[in-house]
Amino acid sequence: MSTAALGTAALGVAAAGFGVTAAPAWSAETAPPRPAAGGGATTFKPLKQVNAGPLNVGYAEDGPADGPPVLLLHGWPYDIHSYVEVAPILAAAGYRVIIPYLRGYGTTRFLSDDTRRNSQQAAIAADAIALMDALKIDKAVVAGYDWGARTANIMAALWPERCKAMVSVSGYLIGSQELNRMPLPPKAELQWWYQYYFATDRGRDGYAKYTRDFVRLIWELASPKWAFDDATFARSAPAFDNPDHVAISIHNYRWRLGLAEGEPQYDALEKTLATLPTIAVPTITMEGDANGAPHPDPAVYAKKFTGRYEHRLITGGIGHNLPQEAPQAFAQAVLDVAKF
Fold this sequence. Notes:
Strands 1, 2, 3, 4, 5, 6, 7, 8, 9 and 10 form a ten-stranded mixed sheet that branches. Helix content is 36%, strand content 16%. Helix 2 crosses helix 14 (327-337) and helix 3 crosses helix 4 (147-158). The radius of gyration is 18 Å and the shape is globular. It is built from 14 helices and ten strands. 51% of the residues are buried.
């Protein structure tokens, strides 16, 4: 789940001291019955590969090559299939849709065996910028949930000139190691059980041995009303066979707790992110009414968005993996924010 980890929940505590309480423009809509307007798509066109920064990135692409670009970013422990029904909706509207596997997922690989398997927040965001550079994309609408939302947040905060607009599930997910030192009430800490499990050697070994069982459990807990079938899970499961997936997953959560080091080239970026910078690009934030993962109330983060802004609650039992559970609503948010 979100790389914001404890920081996501802690933001609610910290934000009270920052006066982040204003209500955004707000709406609620019920997700349409499935299949959504994506036509019930279950597969992508053949994947592409491109060298970008330290990675050879695997990505799906849909829509006209000369269309306005949209970058869709997945979370943990999910994959690009979160957008398998979103992509054709956006493509039909004329957008060039790019959906990359993050480092440690699917067909994305490190170019060098010597590169540290680092997944601190700034590194993942830098990957996305490097991908845009490799594809000669100057500016894009960026959208995501979980790790992907946090990455989109960071891109919009640090490289606003590269972001036309943003859609972010669960709002503002930028955090810091200092913020994550703040203890939470016991019930809140309980929601991060897997993070503490990953802090141990037993947890690392357990995730390596039972990766698919673990992922399926997280899906069920994070989206308690999402009745995904075996075929849906099977389409995503190979993404977690990536040889770096376990190392990337473990490092991310250990780094969040200050139990693993990052890399010096990201120190300046992390120093800026630790200030919890505001985001000025046009933004729509979203939340599902049945999100079983920890997430802040929209009023907590509303003032972090200083440009044109709207929040949408998607009802009908929608959980953490909002784009896959409510593809029409997610795609509509992307189409709408692009016109802000």
